[in-house]
Specification:
seven-stranded mixed beta sheet; single chain; alpha/beta; 42% helix; 204 residues; 8 helices; Lambda Exonuclease, Chain A
Amino acid sequence: MSDILISLSALQHYAFCPRQCALIHNEQVWSENWLTAQGQQLHQRVDSGVPETRKGIRYERAVRVSAPKLGLVGKLDLIEVDIKTGICFPVEYKRGKPKQDHIDLIQLCAQVLCLEEMLKLSINHVAMWYWQTKHRIEVVLTQSLRDETLTIIEKTRMLLESGMTPKAKYEKKCDACSLYDLCNPKLMFKDKSKVYVNMLFQEG
């Protein structure tokens, strides 16, 4: 087992873009934009709350977790605990709106894996609250999502162990990335300078 401890946030970064993950976690590069600033504001508001109990449900905020067997560490926005049954599940707060891919769900599934290893119990669903739509959704954790999450964990571990940063490849989602100016995906992806220099020195 690797000695590297993977933060839960790194898994989401990898699922969004392996290059972004490497820039942040291998090269220690970070930059704010208005999207990340809103996200920070939202999480500060969530983290500032104190534990409370309402209608038989205990709400634990800013809960630190770890899963030594998987090599994961992180902090959960919120855990809801049914006081009578002891059943619990994580709730993640997101700035935007539900996505078509599994990026947000992979992070939540990894949170569940941490809780299951720590508490020796089984959790079958999670919840997510989206700031932009003011809407909460609950998702049942399927085996395929668990398998996908374990794959992302392993790929993230390999990336962090390598210390390498993948080459840039521009996609539409790059436009919303806070590291866009530092990454320069369009410039790096279309850079033909090496080919041009080689052509200059070719014999006529």
